[in-house]
Design goal:
Length: about 325
């Protein structure tokens, strides 16, 4: 019995030792696994941090590039705006050079859009600025000359305007003087008298009459005044006699019994051409055409080709 118990005890001890060994082995494997996992996590964290830093650097570089591109675009826009403003003032002079500048600007704009190397774009933009500044300097010198010419042109124009104004004043004075001379040289008729006449009885003597039914003819007498500044030579004298009903005594309405005064065609009653020699001259014109005289006031007007020179009136009862 004792041997059998000892055997069982030994088996139990062996079994317990075996289980202890297995537990230790499993614990070692677990520790190794944990260590490996920690290493893997550490590596992943390292790669994540490294990737994050790289992304941050890439993002910062991209932002920096974008800011540089925006700066380049602003410089290009500013350059092209200034050039366009200057070109608009001197378009005819810059016409031949414009294509070079425009082509360079398009190329720089294309490089910016492609996000090309900053320093490459910088060199292109600096070269374009040099070209534009060279053109501006040349045109500015031309503009200075043009400004001097413009000032001289304005001065010449002002001088011409002053000369024109002076000429206009002279012309106005001349016209005024001409008008005064024309008025001064006009003839004038004074002592204008118009009377009706009839023939008395068998004697045939002509006597003055103011009775409409007895008047046979009308005589108008007047004196052309002396005028030293009037032109000498032939002068046409016209007499118009208007009845109380405003009808003009006339031979007919044909043009040969009319004259033009102030662009109006007027019929005359009587007319006569005289040779005026700047001396006083008395005239009497007679209207003896068959006429029906009516009672009332008759108006008499005397004209030359240029002026109305005298008036009078008489009344028939």
């Amino acid at each position: 019995m004792d041997n059998k118990g000892n055997i069982n005890q030994n088996q139990e001890k062996q079994e317990a030792n075996k289980n202890n060994a297995t537990s230790k082995k499993d614990l070692s494997v677990l520790k190794i696994t944990i260590i490996v996992l920690i290493l893997i996590i550490g590596v992943l964290i390292f790669f994540w941090l490294n990737t994050r830093q790289s992304l941050r650097e890439i993002t910062e570089k991209k932002i920096e590039r974008e800011e540089l591109n925006i700066e380049l675009e602003r410089e290009l826009d500013s350059l092209m705006y200034e050039y366009t403003e200057f070109k608009n003032r001197h378009d005819s002079i810059l016409y031949d050079k414009d294509s070079i500048i425009q082509q360079s600007a398009k190329e720089i704009d294309r490089l910016i859009a492609m996000e090309a190397d900053y320093y490459r774009i910088r060199r292109r933009l600096d070269a374009l600025q040099d070209i534009a500044q060279d053109y501006v300097m040349k045109i500015d010198s031309l503009y200075t000359v043009a400004e001097v010419l413009r000032v001289e042109r304005d001065e010449a124009r002002d001088e011409a305007d002053r000369a024109k104004d002076y000429a206009s004043e002279l012309e106005a004075d001349r016209e005024e003087l001409t008008s005064k001379v024309k008025v001064a040289s006009a003839l004038s008729a004074h002592q204008v008298e118009a009377r009706g006449f009839r023939t008395r009885g068998f004697t045939g003597r002509e006597v003055e009459s103011d009775r409409a039914r007895r008047v046979e003819y009308i005589e108008v007498c007047f004196t052309i005044a002396e005028n030293p500044v009037a032109p000498e030579g032939p002068q046409n004298i016209y007499v118009r006699v208007a009845r109380p009903d405003e009808k003009i005594l006339r031979i007919s309405d044909e043009d040969e019994y009319a004259f033009v005064h102030n662009q109006d065609t007027l019929q005359f009653t009587m007319n006569q051409e005289i040779n005026y020699q700047n001396r006083q001259k008395k005239l009497c014109l007679t209207w003896d055409e068959p006429t029906e005289y009516i009672e009332g006031m008759y108006l008499v007007s005397i004209y030359t080709d240029e002026h109305r020179i005298g008036e009078s009136a008489f009344t028939l009862r």
